[in-house]
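FAQ

Q: What does a record look like?
A: Structure on top, sequence underneath. For example:
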């Protein structure tokens, strides 16, 4: 008998000037913000959510996501967004959560390399692990993994695509 508690995850999609995004929230806060694309469709995104949050029950519910969707749109409209009015419900390892918390301390318009981020998180030798945690960030834009750039130059990879990462950085006057 499965006695694990189900976690209700409420979802919706919204349009931003940079594309369609999938928003997911629990009763504790935002659990995900994913770019929708041909290779990252709703089914793929929901599979990621179920992988990250064990026993997730996904429910499309615009009313539950509305405050978060409004906050995301309001933050996008600002030149230097700071997501102070958004609660997060993060699911990951303690190391991943520490990296995601470190990402939240990077100011709009500022960028770091992966090695600088690892050092900022107190793990200067864990550069690859930090990069892996950045890649698994479930809340794009608001937990600003786009502010991490490769030491070799350029904007690097991004779950929404390098072109979207470049637009985000330009929007914040970071490049």
């Amino acid at each position: 008998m499965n006695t694990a508690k189900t976690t209700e995850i409420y979802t919706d999609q919204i349009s931003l000037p940079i594309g369609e995004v999938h928003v997911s929230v629990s009763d504790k806060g935002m659990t995900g913000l994913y770019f929708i694309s041909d290779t990252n469709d709703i089914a793929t995104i929901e599979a990621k959510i179920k992988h990250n949050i064990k026993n997730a029950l996904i429910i499309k519910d615009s009313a539950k996501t509305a405050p978060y969707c409004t906050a995301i749109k309001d933050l996008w409209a600002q030149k230097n967004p700071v997501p102070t009015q958004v609660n997060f419900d993060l699911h990951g390892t303690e190391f991943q959560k520490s990296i995601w918390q470190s990402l939240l301390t990077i100011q709009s318009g500022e960028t770091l390399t992966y090695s600088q981020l690892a050092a900022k998180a107190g793990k200067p030798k864990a550069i690859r692990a930090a990069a892996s945690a950045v890649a698994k960030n479930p809340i794009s834009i608001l937990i600003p993994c786009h502010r991490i750039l490769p030491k070799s130059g350029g904007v690097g990879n991004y779950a929404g695509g390098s072109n979207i990462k470049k637009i985000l950085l330009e929007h914040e006057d970071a490049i």
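Q: Is there anything notable about this one?
A: DSSP finds six helices and six strands in the chain.
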